[in-house]
Amino acid sequence: MHIDDLETPSVLIDLHRMEANIRRMQDRCNALGLAFRPHIKTHKIPDIAKMQLEAGAIGIACQKVSEAEVFASAGITDIQIPYNIVGAKKTARLADLALYNRVSVSADHPVTVSGLSDAAKANDITIRVLVDLATEIQRTGAPVDDVIELAKKIDEDEYLYFAGLMVYPSNASIRPAVQEVIQRLHEAGIGVETVSGGGYGASYQADQLPELTEIRVGTYVFNDMNSVSKGWATLDDCAMRIMATVVSRPSPDRMILDSGSKTLAADRVNDTHGYILEYPEARIYQLSEEHAHVDISQCGERPVIGERVSVIPVHTCVVTNLHNQIYGVRGEDIEVEWKVAARGLVW
Amino acid sequence: MHIDDLETPSVLIDLHRMEANIRRMQDRCNALGLAFRPHIKTHKIPDIAKMQLEAGAIGIACQKVSEAEVFASAGITDIQIPYNIVGAKKTARLADLALYNRVSVSADHPVTVSGLSDAAKANDITIRVLVDLATEIQRTGAPVDDVIELAKKIDEDEYLYFAGLMVYPSNASIRPAVQEVIQRLHEAGIGVETVSGGGYGASYQADQLPELTEIRVGTYVFNDMNSVSKGWATLDDCAMRIMATVVSRPSPDRMILDSGSKTLAADRVNDTHGYILEYPEARIYQLSEEHAHVDISQCGERPVIGERVSVIPVHTCVVTNLHNQIYGVRGEDIEVEWKVAARGLVW
Questions:
Q1: If residue A184 lies in a helix (H) or strand (E), which one and from where to where?
Q2: How far is B87 from chain A (nearest CA, A)?
Q3: Model's pTM, two decimal places?
Q4: ipTM attached to this prediction
Q5: Rounded distance between C-alpha atoms, residue A34 and residue A206, angstroms
Q6: Would you say the C-alpha torsion B309, B310, B312, B318 has a positive or negative sign?
Q7: How many CB atoms lie within 10 A of CB B269?
Q8: pLDDT recorded at residue B156
Q9: CA–CA separation, A36 vs A56, rounded Å?
Q10: CATH fold of the domain at B34-222
Q11: Which residues of A touch B293 (CB under 8 A)?
Q12: What's the rounded Cα separation, in Å, for the pair A207 and A229?
């Protein structure tokens, strides 16, 4: 099928670029001597995770038990959930999953650790737990003293295995804390097997944190205008494009596309909601739910109603999450239609 | 089933409040002598549209042909698409839909009108077309002179029926243009059967635009913090709540919920991404994809890990669109699980 046979708005993935992105990140991690664990939040598609594993990734990361179940069902067995899994039903399903898969999970509080222990005990299995060390972004995570206590609690628990540290994001600023934790746990006779870092920047700043043993990155697989604005990717590395149609030309200086915030998501960078490949001077200055409002005053040629354009989105992870399917294309041929299998899940 | 049996994050709809919202808006439109056409973008669920029709609505509005197909399949026959439908495949499906349903569509350009005419002719049917009059928001829409020409073009077309004007939003600022169009078309011997207004504010400002014959409103059915901030609804009128779990308490002043931008959407009003019913002083100051970062420094009691809270979202229409299903609850009992049937569609 040709891309012209698709309706708009549709999400296209340039397979050649995606394959190059997968290879490039794996090569970088290999060169750094780091295990690589792609985060599937960006694509939520088992077939793409398998390509990442075939390229050399040691396993995947995902953010929910339900997502892990989708990927485990597809035959992926090494799954990390760098998230506090709270509540008896969720921990029970996590324990189920850990029965046949190498599952690890993070925790930042004794209550959360106890919940994991109860679920593991009920299933008579061992759950691998990473302790979440607080970083500068002040999201989840415990401070150093608490991390030490949590590691000891996990280490002493018959049904839990202390798998190491989880940090997000991982860069130089967290190094003193990581070093202190490793040193103090060493003194307590507890080894830190894994230091799992995360964030796109982690792959560029890994030399600042040599204690890292693995990194989790998601966005690199498609890239987006956020990646470009941070200098982590070029426009040529961006594999995702939203194919949209010009549905209105209300004035010489404006056009309206059929891709609003329910298609492109609400994110904005450098004062635009996306980069239009065919009209680089155009600026998507506003989104309604189903319309993109575009300033074309700086464009030489001006688009006409019915014309199709390609938009590189600002944040690819939240775009995938809006769509039921995305299309893998090579040139102008559609090679594969993927269901976004793990989107919209609750667990 | 009890709401405690659901996992989090889940989207709950308080049925009592939703029913009251449906009645209140219909009563207001009846009192104003306006036909009411709820916009289904807010819920995307045929069962809810049927409740709106049973309350007295004359039909529905939706934004895509694919959405119209879902609602037509559910037996809803009067459907307006206040959107420029562009491209031969889409107009062909629109014509198919118009064969057995009372379908109207808007247009703001001769090219768009010609596309509709071609599709109607190919199916030997008549398509009802509203001309989209440009308003202050500068989205789609033609200026007055162009509206006159478009109306004439439609009126002269054997396969199109000039159904009237579409304006969004509808308030006093557009009245001079509406009056001029009606007057000039009257002089040309063309009647303006419908003046279809839209936007939540339309129901409060309808007296400023007495030429209106119908209005399209979506958000009123659930309401949200945007509605509250505009004074169009009270907290008590908000029927949608996201049930979330406290998954981390990294400091005395912060908590983290399991509902990020992939659950609550990215919208923000009054410096928060949602209102937490149990902790009114809490402020959701930031969202990651799967985490809400909440400032609880102003709260008297502080939540504990594992506790569930109820979040009224900022913009309900984009929240529904993120979820595969939502739950209708009465008190703490789950009365119905609805599939969000028309979400994520392309056409």
A1: helix A175-187
A2: 6
A3: 0.97
A4: 0.96
A5: 9
A6: positive
A7: 18
A8: 98
A9: 8
A10: TIM Barrel (3.20.20)
A11: 138-139
A12: 22
Structure tokens at B247: 């998954």
* H/E element, A335: strand A333-339
Using CA atoms, how far apart are residues B262 and A66, in angstroms rounded to an integer?
A: 14
How much is the pLDDT for A345?
87
Helix (H) or strand (E) holding B72: helix B65-73
CB contact under 8 A, B346 and A111: no
A189: how many CB neighbours lie within 10 A of its CB? 8
Instruction: Report yes or no: B220 and B21 within 8 Å, Cβ to Cβ.
Output: yes
Distance from C-alpha of B61 to C-alpha of B105, rounded to nearest angstrom: 10
Hey, what CATH class is B3-9+226-339 in?
A: mainly beta
Residue A286 one-letter amino acid:
Q
Q: Give the chain B residue nearest A251 (alpha carbons).
A: B142
- B118: exposed, middle or buried (Cβ count in 10 Å: 0-12, 13-18, 19+): middle
C-beta of residue B116 within 8 angstroms of C-beta of residue B105: yes
- Closest Cβ–Cβ partner in A246, A248, A266 for B266: A266
Nearest to A168 by CA among B183, B246, B250: B250
Identify the CATH homologous superfamily for domain A34-221. Answer: Alanine racemase (3.20.20.10)
Q: Where are the beta strands (DSSP E) in chain B?
A: 10-14, 35-36, 60-61, 78-84, 102-107, 127-132, 160-166, 194-198, 214-216, 240-251, 254-257, 274-276, 283-287, 292-295, 308-313, 325-330, 333-339
Domain range annotation of chain B = 3-9+226-339, 34-222
pLDDT tens-digit series, residues A83-103:
999 999 999 999 999 999 999
The rounded distance, in Å, linking the Cα atoms of A55 and A49 is 10
Positive or negative, the CA dihedral B198, B201, B203, B208 is: negative
Report strand pairing: A292-295 vs A283-287: antiparallel
The reply to whether residue B305 touches residue A8, judged by beta carbons under 8 angstroms, is no
Residues of A in contact with B250 (CB under 8 A): 108, 134, 138-142
Chain A interface, best mutation among B258, B297, B304, B320, by max A CB count within 10 A: B258
| Start-to-end CA span in chain A (Å) | 36
| pLDDT of A216 higher than 90 | yes
Collect the ranges in chain B with pLDDT lower than 70.
347
Average pLDDT across chain A, whole number: 97
How does DSSP classify residue B243? Answer: E
- Cα distance between residue B111 and residue A234, in whole Å: 37
> What whole-number distance in Å separates Cα of residue A21 and Cα of residue A200?
12
Among B100, B195, B103, CA closest to B147: B195
Q: Is A241 part of the contact surface with chain B (CB cutoff 8 Å)?
A: no
